[in-house]
């Protein structure tokens, strides 16, 4: 089983998967099994587990291709096995990607994985043992980082890895869930329309339609003492959000209207987690909750109760870990929340 840690806090100069703002836990400080401490609504496992990826990337050699009559960028990609986006970047082509007969195009070599229906960035990263952020960089992916069925993406690195090595290299963090957790959609497939009801159980491999734009400002999800602020904390540690002390079972409210994109307990350091997307590439994260009251694909309104606070994961006390993210980047929540 792959090691799964939290990205909430990042030791300076160390891999970004260290537990946030606390020293590495000792054996006696391991979190209790999340399933024993986090109450969730009935739901399928997330898409990266429901739709695992086979590491069947094709190794494509670097070459020069001469454009023939009837060629398009996608047809050339199918002929060579390289990604159409990678070919466009290598040749400085921009939409509408006009090419002409006799033109010489550079075909960038490398390992190319063809995305199948329902696959996620997380599952692809897990299959190859390559961090999702490296795949994002290698393919120049932009927010919202959505994959499409049939797309060929470049997998960084060429070193063969065993199954055990790939599992050991894989880490799941909040950034990955926010930017690599949605299933790939066919070019003309419409994502599922959000519903207001938590009783609808959306198939894990069905894409969710997030809001295009955010409406209004953020509000505090709970009221309480800030136990740990954003940024550097204890020596060598960093918090990507804020930690708010609250009594057990305090209602946790949606900081802004949006759509639920993740509910679960797969980040042991955080225990129960709810993630919302709000449009304009904003997302909010609610961790350490003990009871989750919403479903993936559910539309929620600002101020709606989405969970109950807890002390799950590596929480020292009853508390809420709260993050605001813009794309992959964390934002100091206090700078976005009402003062006073």
UniProtKB/TrEMBL annotation:
Q: What's this protein's name?
A: Murein DD-endopeptidase MepM/ murein hydrolase activator NlpD
Q: Which InterPro entries match?
A: Cell_wall_metabolism_enzyme, Dup_hybrid_motif, LysM, LysM_dom_sf, M23ase_b-sheet_dom
CDD domains assigned to the protein according to its UniProt record, in alphabetical order: LysM, M23_peptidase
Q: Where do the LysM domain residues begin and end? A: 63-107, 111-155
Q: For the region Disordered, what residue ranges are annotated?
A: 14-53, 181-208
| Ribosomal protein found in the keyword field | no
Q: Which GO terms describe its molecular function?
A: metalloendopeptidase activity
Q: Does the keyword Acetylation apply?
A: no
This protein's species is Stakelama sediminis
Which keywords does this Swiss-Prot/TrEMBL entry list?
Hydrolase
Pfam families given for it? LysM, Peptidase_M23
């Amino acid at each position: 089983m792959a090691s799964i840690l939290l990205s909430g806090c990042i030791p300076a100069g160390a891999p970004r998967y260290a537990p946030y703002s606390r020293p590495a836990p000792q054996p006696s400080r391991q979190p209790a099994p999340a399933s024993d401490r986090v109450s969730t609504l009935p739901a399928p496992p997330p898409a990266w587990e429901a739709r695992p990826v086979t590491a069947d990337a094709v190794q494509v050699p670097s070459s020069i291709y001469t454009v023939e009559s009837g060629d398009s960028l996608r047809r050339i990609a199918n002929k060579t096995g390289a990604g159409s986006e990678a070919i466009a970047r290598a040749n400085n082509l921009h939409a509408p990607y006009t090419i002409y007969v006799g033109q010489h195009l550079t075909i960038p070599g490398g390992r190319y994985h063809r995305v199948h229906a329902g696959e996620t960035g997380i599952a692809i990263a897990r299959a190859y043992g390559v961090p999702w952020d490296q795949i994002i960089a290698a393919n120049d992916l932009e927010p919202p980082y959505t994959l499409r069925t049939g797309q060929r993406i470049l997998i960084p690195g060429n070193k063969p890895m065993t199954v055990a090595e790939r599992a050991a290299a894989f880490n799941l963090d909040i950034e990955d869930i926010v930017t690599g957790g949605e299933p790939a959609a066919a070019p003309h497939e419409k994502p599922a329309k959000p519903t207001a009801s938590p009783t609808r159980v959306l198939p894990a491999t069905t894409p969710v339609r997030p809001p295009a734009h955010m409406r209004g400002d953020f509000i505090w999800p709970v009221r309480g003492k800030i136990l740990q602020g954003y940024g550097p904390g204890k020596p060598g540690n960093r918090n990507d959000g804020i930690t708010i002390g609250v009594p057990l079972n305090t209602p946790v409210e949606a900081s802004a209207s949006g759509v639920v994109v993740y509910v679960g307990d797969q980040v042991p350091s955080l225990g129960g987690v709810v993630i919302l997307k709000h449009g304009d590439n904003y997302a909010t994260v609610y961790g350490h909750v003990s009871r989750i009251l919403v479903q993936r694909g559910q539309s929620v309104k600002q101020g709606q109760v989405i969970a109950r606070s807890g002390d799950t994961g590596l929480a020292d006390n009853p508390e809420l870990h709260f993050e605001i993210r813009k794309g992959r980047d964390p934002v100091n929540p206090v700078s976005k929340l009402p003062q006073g």
